[in-house]
Amino acid sequence: MTHFNTLDAIEEGAALGILSAADKVMATTQFVERQTRGIAAVRELHKPEELDVTCSEDCEEHEDDHPIVAKLTVCNHCYGLAIEVDDYYGENGIAREFLHPCQTVRALDEAGA
């Protein structure tokens, strides 16, 4: 399967004279706007959510009357999917891949998006 690159297509259209300079600018601007909206939608889906978590009963610092409560920031979407698959997910700990920033957000950040 051949990968289609929109920016290359715009450049080629301009080079062939199919797109005027103004059309090229407009097409590039529209492409960037679509990409920006898409990235914003992904970031909204993978936004951070703060949870109150307690330590496990075998924790050395655990007190029966006053369990230790901590804040843990997870990815709303990734953690939500884990809960959908397993209603009891998180009772024995939360996997690193569900912490925020999740792999999706880190990939966007690393790409500068």
UniProtKB/TrEMBL annotation:
Name the domain of life this protein comes from: Bacteria
Q: Specify the protein name.
A: Uncharacterized protein
